[in-house]
């Protein structure tokens, strides 16, 4: 069976998340908080796509003049624009123009006259998405077309609208980041044509979104040196090893119950690791507030971040810094044992490339592994051995 035909978007970070480009005839949903850069991302890929494909950009939120101003800022020269919220008008325009790429910004503003409910309601969103799905799969005279939909998020940060919307589309992309921070992370929560483990990293600038080909260097920029409570972790995002700084601050509580705050890391996992550190590491933190953070807005869910999280907590408790040249990774069990993780050769190579000279890793499954030149590897079986290696001297 032949592989699916893909269209390069012009942004390699977006292509990486999509699995090599947008699949012809696919329905792709892009969500994110207001002002995060969804419209900028789509307008920017229009600049590259319009050079070899016909693109129709439908906006239900902005006027043609607003779109023109953004297009001029991003260097878009020639693009078919339609400011419309009626689904029937959009389908008629798509039938007439027969574009290769259709962008609808956003699905919550679209409505069909067949329903009496207001735009954005569950019924309207489902009906409009179903019609656009038929359009993408070839339900018009021009054959299949690639469709991008923009969706808002609700107060809880989840994709707004009915959950069935996510089941109807082929790919769900989430645009993450803090509007006060220049960096944006694009990840796939669903992808019928590729992996959901890859992420793309971009930076918001005046001229638009700029790709960050080396996110590890970006995430470690401004890292404090010789400060207790920090440790560098090496995690895998799909096939890409990434280094990130993990920070912990443990301080005596002034409340009756210690406060626990976690950002960028699973809260329950952080509390589990704190309990393991107390029970197996011999450190008391029952009367301490614990604040845990991953710098740069990155969200880490991989088990390999367990060991650097424990080392960061131990460093804050000891008030002794982890050496600036040290990096670590490994899964921590409830018995305090360290378990191996995947992609160790790639992780070590990335650590050596960025100038780290000491890595603390699990001993399980790594005895025959050769370390890259310039990198000393300490293999530990327990968190006690890992702390001894990290704080030696």
Describe this structure in words.
By secondary structure, this protein is of the alpha/beta class. Helix content is 28%, strand content 27%. The termini are far apart. A hairpin with a 6-residue loop joins strand 8 (171-176) and strand 9. Helix 8 crosses helix 9 and helix 9 (306-318) packs across helix 11 (383-390). It has 11 helices and 20 strands. The mean pLDDT is 89. The strands form 4 sheets. It has a 9-stranded mixed sheet with strand order 5-4-6-7-3-8-9-10-11, sandwiched between helices. The protein has a 7-stranded mixed sheet with strand order 14-15-13-12-16-19-20. A two-stranded antiparallel sheet has the order 1-2. The radius of gyration is 24 Å and the shape is elongated. The chain has helices at 12-18, 38-49, 64-74, 87-97, 122-136, 164-168, 215-219, 267-281, 306-318, 344-353, 383-390, and strands at residues 6-7, 22-23, 27-32, 55-59, 80-83, 101-105, 146-151, 171-176, 183-191, 199-205, 208-211, 230-237, 240-252, 260-263, 288-294, 326-328, 331-332, 338-339, 358-362, 376-380. It folds into 2 domains: 6-213, Rossmann fold, CATH 3.40.50.300; 218-390, Ribosomal Protein S5, domain 2 (2-Layer Sandwich).
């Amino acid at each position: 069976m032949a592989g699916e035909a893909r269209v390069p978007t012009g942004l390699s970070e977006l292509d990486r998340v999509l699995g090599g480009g947008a699949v012809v005839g696919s329905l792709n949903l892009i969500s994110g908080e207001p002002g995060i850069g969804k419209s900028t991302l789509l307008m920017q890929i229009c600049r590259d796509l319009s050079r070899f494909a016909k693109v129709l950009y439908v906006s239900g939120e902005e006027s043609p003049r607003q779109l023109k101003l953004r297009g001029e800022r991003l260097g878009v020269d020639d693009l078919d624009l339609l400011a419309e919220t009626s689904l029937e008008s959009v389908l008629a325009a798509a039938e007439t123009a027969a574009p290769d790429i259709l962008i609808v910004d956003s699905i919550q503003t679209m409505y069909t006259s067949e329903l009496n409910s207001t735009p954005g309601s569950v019924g309207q969103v489902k009906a409009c998405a179903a019609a656009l799905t038929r359009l993408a799969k070839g339900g018009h005279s021009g054959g299949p077309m690639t469709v991008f939909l923009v969706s808002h998020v609700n107060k809880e940060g989840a994709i707004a609208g009915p959950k069935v919307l996510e089941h109807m589309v082929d790919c769900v992309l989430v645009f993450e980041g803090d509007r006060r921070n220049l960096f944006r992370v694009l990840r796939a929560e669903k992808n019928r044509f590729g992996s959901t483990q890859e992420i793309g990293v971009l930076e918001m600038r005046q001229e638009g979104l700029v790709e960050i080909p080396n996110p590890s260097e970006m995430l470690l920029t401004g890292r404090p040196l010789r400060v207790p409570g920090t440790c560098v972790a090496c995690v895998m995002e799909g096939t890409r090893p990434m280094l990130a700084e993990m920070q912990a601050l443990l301080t005596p509580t002034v409340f009756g119950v210690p406060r626990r705050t976690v950002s960028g890391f699973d809260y329950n996992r952080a509390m589990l690791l704190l309990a393991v550190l107390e029970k197996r590491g011999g450190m008391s933190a029952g009367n301490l507030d614990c604040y845990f953070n991953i710098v740069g807005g990155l969200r880490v869910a991989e088990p390999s971040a367990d060991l650097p999280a424990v080392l960061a907590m131990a460093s804050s408790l000891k008030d002794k810094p982890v050496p600036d040249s040290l990096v670590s990774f490994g899964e921590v069990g409830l018995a305090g044992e360290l378990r191996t993780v995947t992609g160790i050769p790639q992780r070590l190579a990335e650590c050596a490339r960025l100038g780290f000279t000491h890595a603390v890793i699990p001993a399980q499954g790594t005895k025959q592994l050769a370390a890259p030149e310039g990198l000393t590897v300490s293999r530990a079986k327990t968190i006690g051995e890992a702390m001894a290696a990290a704080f030696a001297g």
